[in-house]
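Form 12-C: Joint structure prediction
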Amino acid sequence: MPIAPIIEDTTEPGPRGNYRKTAATRARILDAALDVFGEAGFDKGSLREVAEKAGISQAGLLHHYPNKVALLSAVLERRDERALSGLSSRPNGVEHLAYLVAYARESSLRPGEIDLFAVLSAEATRPDHPANDYMRRRYHWVSGIMRTSFEEAARAGLLREGIDPGEAASQLIALWDGLQIQWLLRVNDVVVADRLEQFIDLQLVRPLREIVQTEPA
Amino acid sequence: MPIAPIIEDTTEPGPRGNYRKTAATRARILDAALDVFGEAGFDKGSLREVAEKAGISQAGLLHHYPNKVALLSAVLERRDERALSGLSSRPNGVEHLAYLVAYARESSLRPGEIDLFAVLSAEATRPDHPANDYMRRRYHWVSGIMRTSFEEAARAGLLREGIDPGEAASQLIALWDGLQIQWLLRVNDVVVADRLEQFIDLQLVRPLREIVQTEPA
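Section 2 - Result
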């Protein structure tokens, strides 16, 4: 896991400066939380460790995030927002699918993060888990995006006959989750992004790389 | 989760009777362990609860399984042995694939067990987890079986051109793991066995149900 960079605070005083300072502190806390939870797991990672890694006091941390669940939710939401912002800059469904492949490739550089999300995805299936609600909403949201992408591909005449966009979306998410487990276990020499691309290619009339010329990260 | 049946011990005394009695006690303990770990999770489920549910003393339990990890390993191995014994009675690769679909359908009747294995599969990706070694061996073993099944299908002229048996096996396991998460989260109305069958059908020249007339559980 990369060490969270210490963000230098060069903002001037005043409301806007304070706002920026708060944003920078929060970003530092979330980077630290991702590191700590990614290495030790959510159950075992402590707020004390997060505060230490972020270079602030525990009271300071609690001022921003009153408990571990609030902190975890913020980590999850930030990760999703980042992914979404990359997605929204793409013009259409097939470009979205190419983006997901690029995103999978790029996130393989952060194994601790993948580990955290793989374990959390499974643990949070339990109705009493603090992230259960978030994970359920997240699956609906992600599968909605992928479904729309496959629907747009269908309208552009790029989806193979007989492929149902909703099912293709659900299979793609399942593959992603399952391949990450194999990758983390270091079995089958899995390169997650390659496998996702192969699956998407099976749904399309032409390979993704022929339709989308580049695969920008 | 079904309550583990209390097995009545009607065996006569003597070495053979003792052996049978031991086997019956162990079966009762493993049923109880599956229930307890399936409901509470491996971390939170206690040996005390398992002993209580199995109707024996904690000392009696420790006589058979000296610690939680030994107990978990025995639960995992028994489950795999059962699955394997069903598999070995099938004559060839395509029949094996049909069996896996039937197995997925049948195990959906035991959600607690699926929950335990889904969470464990993810948690055990961590190298320091007590089941890490077992899970790695298990993935190699399961993907070997599936790969052989697809290879046999290829030799019988039933695999689509361009499909790599090893990759199809790895994708099938990943799909299975990932779909179980969606099923446990109750999103996307996933019926795991149906989705696995659809995936297998995509790899074959004819649908599984046309090749294997019945799908016995």
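Section 3 - Comments
Residues 15-40 of chain A form the longest helix (26 residues). Chain A touches chain B at residues 41, 43, 115, 118-119, 121-126, 132, 135-136, 139-140, 143, 166-167, 170-171, 173-179, 181-182, 184-188, 190, 195, 198-199, 202 (CB under 8 Å).
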